[in-house]
Amino acid sequence: MTEKSSPFTKEQLEAIAAEVPTPFHVYDEGAMRANARAFYDAFSWVPGGFKNFFAVKALPNPHVMQALKAEGLGGDCSSYGELVLCEAVGITGEDIVFTSNDTPAYEFQKAAELGAIINLDDISHIDYLEKALGGKLPELLCFRYNPGPLKAGNAIIGKPEEAKYGFTREQLFEGYRILRDKGVKRFGLHTMVASNELNPDYFVETAQMLFDLVVELDRTLGVRCEFLNLGGGIGIPYRPEQTAVDLAYVGRKIREAYEATIVAEGLGPIKITMECGRMITGPYGYLVGRVLHKKAIYKDYLGLDASMANLMRPGMYGSYHHITVPGREDAPRKVYDITGSLCENNDKFAIDREIPDPEIGDLVVIHDSGAHGHSMGFNYNAKLRSAEVLWQREGKWRVIRRAETLADHFATLDYPGLS
Ligand SMILES: *Cc1c(COP(=O)(O)O)cnc(C)c1O
User: Fold this and answer.
1) What separation in Å is there between the alpha carbon of 72 and the centre of ligand 1?
2) Mean pLDDT value of segment 387-401
């Protein structure tokens, strides 16, 4: 069970709304940082050190990345733009892991220029990378392993054998052999087999799978991995009846596996890394919108000024996002479909959701928008991207991205009267 209440009062949100147009996303910096510290605490035992590379796609705002950098997080990038964001924040070198698929040469070149750890998605990318970098591979390379039928899948990524990512087991061994023969000196091993996974044992099994592979790579090829990357995918309790992953438990169990495998085989120290995004920022973001309309036809609808363009997860995956109405906690409850204004019937934040019945004009808070919220936003129906606000404490908050204007939206059109 997870307590799902807005950390902000109606008055605090109205104070922001007096200066920032609704809808907006607001992020709780203190809670985000405390969570990052708890994550690092759970892995403070790792002899080779622990690092989480924040998956930038979850919340690509440099102000947030700066705060996470201060907590020791690096950046996980999968595109040129994400690399540039890291560079601007001062996350460079091996504090970046570039985990990309279907990658164009210029993105590999940018990653190499920044000294990022390049994590290849396919065996054919060894040659592609070598050519892109003018015939010379970096001294450190990492491969993404796709265990296929050897590992059960999870709901968002699906079965590993149907996922487009990574090397097969045979390709993995062949790939490291090629790297070794080409004179690459330093190696890492990566996998990412889960997304939004709440079962803590899943991550322990993933770690065990990689520990076993590290031993096998050492024994069969003499390739020594200096780090493992367990990927991201730690889930968050979007629903009140769900429980957050117990990070301390995961850390403890992975330690047991490390000792029973890596230490027992006389290997190590090995650095353990992850590239979680969702669990770093997801629970600490809130999309705030205002009730515009109530409509009673075959069903009851609550119409907000926010739409799927601000948070597409419910429309795209049918995801649950908890919704509260600050200041109306004790109001009589009513069942609504809670909608935005797009000309798409899946522009619904919730279907048949019972909430305290708001009044028109009330602010409504849609929880867990801190990952894949603003970043997955779009401009369909000429809707403008919203502002983002960073909340530090009572009375101390700042706009970290202003709301888009129509001039921003039309800026790429060369047409009289538009820009
Ligand atoms: C999306 C992604 C992540 C982050 O996943 P979360 O679910 O946000 O933890 C990490 N690595 C790769 C390669 C990804 O594509």
Assistant:
1) 18
2) 95
